[in-house]
């Protein structure tokens, strides 16, 4: 098998169908499925003639465009492995990634090749390819070749190496095989109702691969996709006018930014995830665009997707529960994912368990604990096993992934998220259970004037940061309900660099400590 087998089929069946459209300066460029496959074959030949062989790894540092996807697919076609490093996590991640897994080639934009001047790790890579001319690099693709079949590989052959965000420690390397990505596409295509010939505004790289496998057209969003919150809504609206776009999957920060700019387009369907999706934002979209179908998708690097929730299917009692601190509803697990809620062991390694031993730590419906999942599209381990001890549970031949998320299952088998297990707050005197952040934050964000909220503990105190302006009576009531010691109004609450939507709790604690000291 090979991931590119499906592209070869589509190129033969629909050679003139557009695969990608992107903005390039003042004009737009596009590529058909037929032409894309020709580029992929040429790229694979260029890699081979440069001395690369099946099983070699190519490190990619390149912005999202058609050339990137052609080079990525050429890597798969040739039976090589692609490795991506998110520079938003910092330059040090390049050295960390190459220590974990050396690369035999480097594919980058001319600007990214400048990193070689101050990165010894990059300079050690023997072959360098550039999408445009750059000194001391090989232009790509250099050679043309007749269209030929992809290398036939075992399902266990590595295809794609990426790194987790490192929100709970040092980033871990997730290695996805051809078989894994095929299973992931099957789950995504059903969860996101992907159908041939649909036109999707693309913001998430892995979803573009699923679009291709589904025979869809991907319009690459005219934005800096490394910073979703900085999207220019006017440029997105212009793309909506030029192309028959009906759907979009993106970080909640992407959609929130367009709402704030009063530039939210009339999508037929919106899929959002990768970070907590609060109902207050979904209500804003629904009020302004009642005909738009809103779907939240829950998943992670290691398990994408786990579940989805159609906003229109939320019952009145579900909305009331979210407004009153009971967590975030993220829906039923999909047909490919098995889920359990276990006792929260706070990231501590667990020994290999028998089925009876696993059942003994599994909690009943309605009881909050740690969410664990398994399935063909759920990562069974990290590169070189680094990180497996604290994130995997072996139950006979089944490997369960510990998401690190706290939540519970309701009587309908739906998942409710409560926040990261590591972010829970210990119970105070008179309380019988810990307090998780999402419930409080979701409730706070329903208050008029609150743009973002974050609950943390600091030296035994519960602190609530509020971004925006809220009335004192509303905040006082919330403070009393959750036994919060102090509320801090802030201009900006720190969030992650990748999705611009996950609270950076460690950074927030430092800021709150400084504010407390200054206030004292």
UniProtKB/TrEMBL annotation:
Native species = Rubritalea halochordaticola
Could you tell me which Pfam families the record lists for this protein?
Answer: AMP-binding
Does Ligase count among this protein's keywords?
yes
Q: What is this protein called?
A: Olefin beta-lactone synthetase
What keywords does the record list, in alphabetical order? Answer: Ligase
Per its UniProt record, what PANTHER family does this chain match? Answer: ACYL-COA SYNTHETASE, MEDIUM-CHAIN ACYL-COA LIGASE ACSF2, MITOCHONDRIAL
Tell me where in this chain the AMP-dependent synthetase/ligase domain is found.
Answer: 9-383
Keyword Magnesium in the entry? The reply is no
Q: Which family does it belong to?
A: Belongs to the ATP-dependent AMP-binding enzyme family.
Q: By its UniProt entry, which SUPFAM superfamilies does this protein fall under?
A: Acetyl-CoA synthetase-like
Q: Which residues form a coiled coil?
A: none
